[in-house]
Amino acid sequence: MNQGISKKTKWSYCVGATGRDAAYVLVSMFILTYIQYTMKLTIGQFSVISAAMVVCMVWDAVNDLMMSAIIENCHFKSGKFRPFILVGALLNATVIVLMFTIRPTGWGFVGFFCVTYLLWGMTYTVNDIAYWGMLPSLSSDPKERDSLVTLMGIFVCIGQFAVAGVVPIVIAGNAVNAFRIIALIVALLFIAFQLLTYFGVTESEREDGGTRVSFKDMFKILARNDQLISVGIAYILFCVGQQLLLLLAVNFFYFEFGYSKAGDLITVFTVMYGLGTLAAQFVYPILSKRFSRIKILSGAIIALVTGYFLLLAFGYVIPMNVLILNITGFVIFFCQGLYNLAVIVMVNNTVEYDEYRFGERHDSIISAIRSFASKLSNALNQGAASLILIVSGIYAVSQDISGLEVEVGNGTLASSEALIKADGFIAKVQASQTFMLRLGMVLVPLVAMIAAFLIIKAKYKIDEKEYERIVGEIAAGKGQ
Asked: What global pTM score does this model have?
């Protein structure tokens, strides 16, 4: 295992995250918005789509683990990970363009969407497992690994923020055409940035001697790693808490501030998301030199509990002040960023833990737990978000607005007139409906993230000193 990597490899790997995370956010964060506000579907049709999304994401989570075993067993001249990174990017970019361009109606759209959403998840998995599997293979040095995670996190934030900030501004009043154009641009960026990673990264030599891993072996590798299991469960819960707020945020702003005005406000809130998450990337290395990861997590969870309760009280106990809302958002996203970075390092450190205990190294299999957790939590979030929208009655109102957007897309209604009518629909929404939406945004994430913290504190034992000891033992065994 190389202890140092070249600057070219480091920057090509980290910068490449920009396009892939922009593509992921477009679908994961906005596909529900796209369906709600550009397609005329009955509650039954929307429910089938929501259920299909959950099933597809659960399958995709399992598929992540299967893909990791496939990568372990392939031996290409161009490397262990790079071929999958490029092929996955090309396939997924194609699916994204189709998903936002082809628009059947009614049950035809339901069938089309179910197929394309399944393909989107599977093709992204090809890229995602290879990309994240490459991370622990680049270096086992704890400082260099922290540096890689931090630098990559910065470009992840740039990619996410670029999409999350632009989409809310341009969709209201012209959603059909706006989503189509954005999808094409994002798909091309995905390919361009992953080409940078493909040609710029020099992979380390494989240390497994060409040993093949069966699916049965894969599950044994995962099941035997008690530290991976505990931090993996915790990461699933954390992702549930982190993602649900973002999934429901667009509806929150639409129904609290109005359809015509919400776009700019969502973008400002997204700026807080970008600034908070980016700030976490810069602050985490400083904090990690002074505090243990468990102390960083402890501080983050206390601040998150405070931030979420402030969000719940906004407009009820606390004045309906946009400045207060954005400051609260910054605190939440900053602390989630710190939490996420600490847990990612914890997951990656179980690679050496497994190597130390069993004498085998399986980067892609163990690293796949991060993607597995993200996909499984996304499935839970999609189901929860859809249920909240239907039960609260928010979805029914959004369908009235969707009809207006379809008319604008067909050229039969002016955008300005559509915005006025949409605000009229929202003005009739009852306070109990918006409060139910708020509860879903706040209580579920809080319970999930607190549970994740308690699991890590009770079960995860690879602290900084233990990890250094493990790496030292492995190196001594190899005579390094």
From this structure: 0.77
Cα of first residue to Cα of last residue in the chain, in angstroms, is 10
> How far is Cα 71 from Cα 304, in angstroms, rounded to an integer?
37
Residue 317 has pLDDT above 60, yes or no: yes
So what's the architecture of 12-204+211-477 in CATH? Up-down Bundle (1.20)
Average pLDDT, the chain: 87
Q: What is the dihedral of CA 320, 326, 332, 336, to 10 degrees?
A: 150
Closest CA to 165 of 224, 81, 250, 77: 250
Output the pLDDT for position 101. 94
Q: At what angle do helices 226-257 and 363-392 cross, to 10 degrees?
A: 30
Cβ 280 vs Cβ 341: under 8 Å: yes
- From its phi and psi, is residue 395 left (phi > 0), alpha (psi between -120 and 50) or beta? alpha
Distance CA 63, CA 55 (A): 12
Report the interhelical angle of 175-200 vs 82-101 (nearest 10°).
170
How far CA 307 is from CA of 330, 338, 442, 449, 457, in Å, comes to 9, 15, 10, 13, 22
User: What does the pLDDT look like over 229-248, one tens digit per residue?
Assistant: 899 899 888 888 888 888 88
**R_g (Cα) of the chain, nearest Å:** 22
Chain centroid to Cα 187, Å, comes to: 17
What is d(CA 394, CA 402) in angstroms, rounded to the nearest whole number?
12
**In the numeric block, which tokens belong to residue 112?**
């089309």
| pLDDT, tens digit, 9 for 90 and up, residues 50-77 | 899 889 888 888 888 788 878 877 777 7
Sign of the C-alpha dihedral, residues 155, 161, 167, 169?
negative
